[in-house]
Amino acid sequence: MDIDPKKLKVLLTEEQILAKAKELGKQITEYYKNIKEEIVAVCALKGSVHFFSDLVKNIDHDMTYHFVRVSSYHGGTESSGKITVNSWVKENLENKHILLIEDIVDTGNTIRFLIDEFKKQKPASIKLTSLLIKNAHDHGIHVDFPGFEIDNYFVIGYGLDYDEKYRNLPFIGYVE
Ligand SMILES: O=P(O)(O)OC[C@H]1O[C@H](OP(=O)(O)OP(=O)(O)O)[C@H](O)[C@@H]1O
Ligand code: HPA
Ligand SMILES: [Mg+2]
């Protein structure tokens, strides 16, 4: 797939994304209000970099930041099905309240892998938020704090790449 910038359509504007981050931040704040421990916020890099940054500013709760770098697309528009872990959380997460922050749940492979791996660290809870959820796959993943459900487009921008490019577009776009 080649991306012709002239054919790029806007699916979600920066304004819509920021409004969603605010709304999700409120829901998440409300959900954790009776939990006295900090939230362990985990950003799944690289794609989630911008959504993570927008969202955490809207969560009013003690929090620590953590980053994992996992990938499975390797330049194309199809998941390779194999998750490569490039870096992982170093801290002990036993009895911690983990909030996984993803940019997109597409096939569900990445988030399933992350949840399975974090469960091994015996946290007190794991909750999931994702800016985008593609409705094309029957992945059976429950997103606790869902952003936008989208049709089966390969989307780029706002952290999401095609062949590592276009992450810096200030909106989410697609090519028909
Ligand atoms: O539900 P899935 O089909 O697994 O797709 C979702 C994952 O794919 C993308 O990551 P990618 O592997 O492209 O790495 P990146 O975040 O570095 O772009 C995206 O950021 C999600 O983490
Ligand atoms: O639609 C997508 N765009 C970019 N990266 C992705 N990773 C999974 N799905 C997508
Ligand atoms: Mg990618």
TrEMBL record:
Entry's SUPFAM superfamilies? PRTase-like
> What EC number(s) has UniProt assigned to this enzyme?
2.4.2.8
Q: Which GO terms describe its molecular function?
A: guanine phosphoribosyltransferase activity; hypoxanthine phosphoribosyltransferase activity; magnesium ion binding; nucleotide binding
- Presence of keyword Glycoprotein: no
Enzyme class name: transferase
Involved pathway(s): Purine metabolism; IMP biosynthesis via salvage pathway; IMP from hypoxanthine: step 1/1
Q: Which UniProt keywords apply?
A: Cytoplasm, Glycosyltransferase, Magnesium, Metal-binding, Nucleotide-binding, Purine salvage, Transferase
Q: One cellular component GO annotation, for this chain's record?
A: cytosol
Entry cofactors: Mg(2+)
Q: Which domain of life is it from?
A: Bacteria
Catalysed reactions, as listed in the record? IMP + diphosphate = hypoxanthine + 5-phospho-alpha-D-ribose 1-diphosphate; GMP + diphosphate = guanine + 5-phospho-alpha-D-ribose 1-diphosphate
Q: Which residues form the Phosphoribosyltransferase domain?
A: 13-162
Name its cellular compartments.
Cytoplasm
In the UniProt record, does the keyword Magnesium occur? yes
CDD domains (alphabetical) = PRTases_typeI (cd06223)
Which GO BP annotation is one of this protein's? guanine salvage
Q: Which InterPro entries match?
A: HGPRT, Hxn_phspho_trans, PRTase-like, PRTase_dom
Recorded family membership: Belongs to the purine/pyrimidine phosphoribosyltransferase family.
Q: Provide the protein name.
A: Hypoxanthine phosphoribosyltransferase
Organism of this sequence: Marinitoga hydrogenitolerans (strain DSM 16785 / JCM 12826 / AT1271)
Species lineage: Bacteria, Thermotogati, Thermotogota, Thermotogae, Petrotogales
